[in-house]
What we know:
The chain is of the alpha/beta class. It has four helices and ten strands; from the N terminus they run ββααββββαββββα. The strands form two sheets. Strands 1, 2, 5, 6, 7, 8, 9 and 10 form an eight-stranded mixed beta sheet that branches. Strands 3-4 form a two-stranded antiparallel ribbon. The radius of gyration is 16 Å and the shape is globular.
Amino acid sequence: QSHVTSTQETEVSPFTPTTASQTPAVTTTASEPSPAARAVMDSSAYLSGQKFDEALTYFQEIAAFSEFKGAKPITKWTKDVRIQVHGELTDSDRATLNDLLTFYNQIDGMPRLDLVESQPNVNLYFVPSKEMKQYIQDYVQGNLGFFEVFWNGGFEIYAATIAISSDRTGLLDRNHLIWEELSQCLGLMNDSYQYQNSIFQQD
Length: 203
């Protein structure tokens, strides 16, 4: 489910955490984070003691490993993340993307995430399952969501591609996959059986 190659100090790493036409412009609007988002962002309980140790262990599990390749370097974005959406987008998809951007753009130290109409460094495709391999070469048949990430010799992520099935996913599936695939493209590429309500939950 994952594959790494190296050329000229550039590593290309596609991962599958779970499972083209141009889209109309998608805009973001400022909004208050949901109660769930506020709860997640209240990290004061993790600043010391046992909770800090738990958070660090969890971070290492999802950031220093990939689901099928084992140990990997910790990688991250150092530039703003410019996401262009392709394919048919529902009102729920737009709302979910806006919620995700609002959530991540409130975290100190994060590069900014924006939806753009040109010059993306992340391409997000909503396409029929049978077409997903056209967008991600190493796509594994049967997955509803698939992503690949590209990083350089300094372990800085500079590009990513995401494909989400548009014909085999319901509302909740698509909401989940938008959150999971985009979150994992930020560098947190492993799934885990810890924390039932985590977006990285293996089940």
